[in-house]
Amino acid sequence: MALVRLEARDSGVRVVTLDDPARRNAMGDELGAELLDACAAVAGDPDARVLVLTGAGDAFCAGADLPQLFGPAADAPVTETHARLQRYYRPFFAVRDLAIPTVAAVNGPAIGAGLNLAMACDLRVAGPGATFAATFTRIGLHPGGGCTWFLVQALGASRALRVLLLGEAIRADRAVAWGVAEGPEDDPLAAALELAGRIAEVDPSLARHVKAGVEVAVRSGDLRATLEYESWAQAASASSPLLQEWVARFRT
Question: What domains lie within the chain, and their CATH numbers?
Fold first, then answer.
């Protein structure tokens, strides 16, 4: 039985659903491999404009399959566990590295690895039962999968450190107040799909360039690097029919 479903919706919207509700969509090797395949399919789909990622049932993703991921670590060399973790992280970054905008419909708890998946998306829409929980230290584990970076970017260093040290869960209302997510929405998937539909109306090349420009600004933290990217992307869009329509209006 497939653990990840990929659906094509109208206007270039694609929906990926983690579909293992009995295990609250916990991410083991099989689910991770299927998520990688789904991301590869979306990346290779020329008609895809926006991706919505969600979970089946009452959880977005309850985290890692702990026995599968960390059971062998008790007797394994640290180097071997390190290599295994690097492989395990790949699905988070397959989502994050998609050129098209991505929206997480966080319908319930997003814990540990699930938090990473939600934060790997460009936008997050929270349902009333959503929680964003970095519970690593509560189980004696250092955060992984990019969690430290994601939370520092979203919350700032001081607040991220508190959340990471205490293993705190951020409820939906607080996540919205802190700028982690939008909402809360009674039906986060419907709200995410509505948002995705609006994003899909943007010229796909322009949307990809805007996403890339934000990434340059975040990664470099440098105004000049951002200006350099913007000048090339803006020049590439200067001949767009929509812009030229606006130019023509101001000529009359």
Answer: 4-200 (3.90.226.10), 204-251 (no CATH)
